[in-house]
Amino acid sequence: MVGALAVSENRNQTAHPSRMGDRMNVSQAIAGLVKAYGAEYAFTLTGGPQSPLMEMQLRHGIRTILGRSERSAFAMADAYARITGKPTFGLAQYGCGTAYLPFAMIDAFWAHSPIVAINSATDSATNNKYEYQEMEQAPLFQNCTKWCGDLPAPDRILDVLRTAIRAAVEGTPGPVYLSFPWTGTASRWATSAKCTQTSRLRTRRSCAPRRCLRTSSAPPLRSRGPSAP
Q: Model's pTM, two decimal places?
């Protein structure tokens, strides 16, 4: 599905970095960094823009897993993150697509799943001009993520996305949210291709539900409840 959509996108945005010196656009930067952190799958219900998904699948071999809704797609991401303990990436369209996510993210928050939501947002140049589906998205995630924010400028994509990924896996893992304005962002030159290299993260092998299955010779701890009258 994503491969078919490649024809409708601007072809100059998907040129290989080697043909452009050491520069890349925002979509290529996102895809390269996601791959550098070991991603094998990207969970989504496809919506605009398609260019990050195209770069992930066509250039880096990251398989796109489609859900029937954004909520179900991120529920699958939650399950995958719980099993592997790896940072797991999902994408959703701005507006109504993003509005579905808090229902899935709160479950991931309670389960300490390191989900990284990379969502589009309306163009920052049209803020407060009543563009279709314009909304303040980040506040929706303040109470169900470890970290949430908006991309302040295209050339900040790598350091801001790294910040989000590290927040998802460091300490007690949990979901994070990052949005980037979709109009024009994918075609602006971001940064050097060498910057997609990253150090190896320490991630949990398993999450809390699996640890509960471990046996121990010690008797289970009981919480101290209120004394009976």
A: 0.74
